[in-house]
């Protein structure tokens, strides 16, 4: 058994680690999940400027991805619909309506120039063996922008999940510029579906946001939804509205979807109902308002790490500098190699060093002759001449020597030297160069990525406040039942199914419960009433009770705080007996005292509002030290 448990633990940990790192969670470096990275890699390999059938790209990606064509096709369509890395041709579905894409054999795609600009650099990309060892695939791409927070991503792994909201490309790039300059920045989500966002509880990529549909209520008899909340579709939104209408939470006449390239859901209202009366109910009971919790989880250094937006942008700002420096150094090295080759070629041809090999009869003699021929010109040559250099010179065809253009070569060499100077300047001012790189992207994309979602401040709609109170709450004292399904007894109030009621029993225990269709609470209940904020603030409970010495007490209190379904202790002190309860205003207490010798006053009146309203746990005030025979509430006799 111990062996089986050990085997299970080992295999489960390996599986969990694989799902986290190699399937579900994107990498911090390039913001891609493995399947997305393999799709981009396949598109780079197949790139010829033309569109490719998606089915072909799926087949090519299967050389790297061991989990089948279905997961590849779905990931490719999702990636293409971000409209950032993949150009698409054909029906890729509709983000607004949720309509699926056409079959892979009918639609086409290719890599965007932007994707190649931020991803493609084989010299800087690290590769590893594919799953079958036949090919090489990138570990991560040297990505120059924080793609994960631009595109947004969701993923569920073993014991953890990530949900990163999309942000506006231009705003993220501006934030990266500020980070490079050491300035503060702030980022908020921007959704392709538009809508309204409340970012009060959005904590730098963590926390949550409230999202709302954009409603046009200019027509009092019609509501038009022109933008939908992120995470919903027109179909799911209409379903939620229809379900709310069936449950009598909102009143609508008809609902129609006219969405094409833009959202247009038309809600017609019935007679007597106006658009302003329905707005709060739409936000409360339908997907027109949603709360989205976020968790910025990424793979960093082979481990899942929860980060914030500031950390991600700072990481990529530093990474951009290192990538650009490496690109410049690679280019400089290549230019220096080219300049060295052109210098040798120039001297070899102009000084006719090639004539020195005419008398040589061996390979060693030829190489030695060429090396000796360069000795007088070593001041012009910046590095050692290798055998490879000589072999390349010896392969120059006679035609090229005869057509050699000295001025053309000098111009080319000058251009190379000028570019090396420029590269050295950029390397000395690498941060400014990184900022100029970002500016070049901004200038190309400034008209394509306007903010879609509007940031506003609004409070989450309380369903209890928005609910229509169209149910009659009754209490039948004879049967002891309370509820909106009870048909006999007294009507307590008009309620909705989201309301709560306060119940005080005859022993002065009390509790708060949700409104139900039918609920047995017992006979002889002292009080039943709504437990909403407005009612609880207004209602004052006036309670008469007596102690063991038969003296009468008055207690005044409000019940404003409670835990749902918790039964609380007596409203009167232990050992005392309850007499009367009233919530009326402008009342007095009439007390009859026991007849005793020398007792002149047999009855007295006490004005209730002359006593303080205290807490629920406070004791009452003794009205008189004399024993009493009866006490009751009466209407105040003050003029």
From TrEMBL:
GO cellular component, one term: cytoplasm
InterPro entries xrefs: Topo_IIA-like_dom_sf, Topo_IIA_A/C_ab, Topo_IIA_A_a_sf, Topo_IIA_dom_A, Type_II_DNA_Topoisomerases
Gene Ontology molecular function terms on file: ATP binding; DNA binding; DNA topoisomerase type II (double strand cut, ATP-hydrolyzing) activity
Residue ranges of coiled coil: 318-345
PROSITE patterns per the UniProt record, alphabetical: TOPO_IIA
SMART domains linked: TOP4c (SM00434)
Superkingdom of this protein's organism: Bacteria
Pfam families for this protein: DNA_topoisoIV
Catalytic-site annotation from UniProt: 106 (o-(5'-phospho-dna)-tyrosine intermediate)
Record domain Topo IIA-type catalytic: where: 25-471
Catalytic activity: ATP-dependent breakage, passage and rejoining of double-stranded DNA
GO biological process, one term: DNA topological change
Assigned keywords, A-Z: Coiled coil, DNA-binding, Isomerase, Topoisomerase
Family under the similarity heading: Belongs to the type II topoisomerase GyrA/ParC subunit family.
This protein's name: DNA topoisomerase IV subunit A
Species the sequence originates in: Thiospirochaeta perfilievii
